[in-house]
Amino acid sequence: MIITGVQTLPMIPAIANIRLLVVCLMTLSVALPIAIISLSKLLLLLCALALLLFERRGATPIAGMRMATPIVVLGAMLMLAASLMWSTGPDGQPLTSWHKHGKLVVIALLLFLLRSRREVLWALAAFAVGQTFMLASTWLLVAGLPLPWARANEAASSHAVFSSYLDQSMMTACFAAVCWHLRGLAPGPGGRRLALALLVLSLACVFFVFRARSGHLIAIALVSLAIMWELPQRMRAGALFVPLLVALVFAASSDKVSGRLMAVVHEVQAYAVHEDVTTSSGIRINLWQRSLQALEQRPWAGSGVGSWYQEYNALQTRLSPGSNIEYHSNPHQEFLLWAVELGLPGVVLLGGLMTAMGLDGVRGDRNTSRASLSVVLALVLACLFNCALYDALIGDFFCVLIGLLLALAAHPQPSPALRQMRFA
Question: How do residues 378-401 score in pLDDT, each as one tens digit?
Answer without folding.
Answer: 999 999 999 999 999 999 999 999
